[in-house]
Design goal:
The chain is mainly alpha-helical. The protein has a domain of 78 residues. The protein has four helices and no strands. It is globular, with a radius of gyration of 16 Å.
């Protein structure tokens, strides 16, 4: 896939550390699925309104996301769908097929990370890819990386 950059994560505390083998597997899977997902994209206005929950870290955005996804009939990115950051439509279809596309939240998270498969996900890998920031940090002209 042209333009793909692997995400660069800073060193993480052991509780948040990622398994390199799982990360490699998911990256390969996404790179295989991405061309088909891109071919299925439809130009034009989305059929439903789009809602983005945006806020500063530790400002309650995860809780707001959980409340919205639990209380309203909305599509949202859960922890399963997030594994398909280059082919989100495939993740949404799989979640619907497995019956894990509706949230019954416990309203818990640890620094914005949720654990249940149906819990909301911030979709960082997707945003990193589409915004072009492998570490999700924008650098202005002349900024030392």
């Amino acid at each position: 896939m042209s333009g793909y950059q692997r995400r660069i994560d800073p060193p993480l505390a052991p509780v948040f550390a990622k398994d390199p083998e799982s990360e490699d597997f998911l990256e390969r899977l996404n790179l295989l699925l991405a061309p088909q997902a891109e071919a299925e994209l439809i130009d034009g206005d989305p059929p439903h309104p789009i809602l983005h929950v945006v806020g500063a870290p530790r400002s309650g955005t995860t809780l707001m996301y959980q409340v919205i996804a639990s209380g309203l009939d909305v599509a949202y990115v859960n922890n399963l769908v997030a594994a398909f950051w280059l082919a989100p439509s495939h993740g949404m279809r799989l979640a619907a097929k497995l019956g894990v596309d509706r949230l019954h939240s416990n309203f818990a998270s640890q620094f914005g990370r949720t654990t249940g498969i149906t819990e909301p996900h911030e979709f960082g890998y997707f945003w990193n890819h589409h915004l072009g920031y492998p570490d999700l940090r924008e650098r202005g002209p002349g900024h030392d990386a």
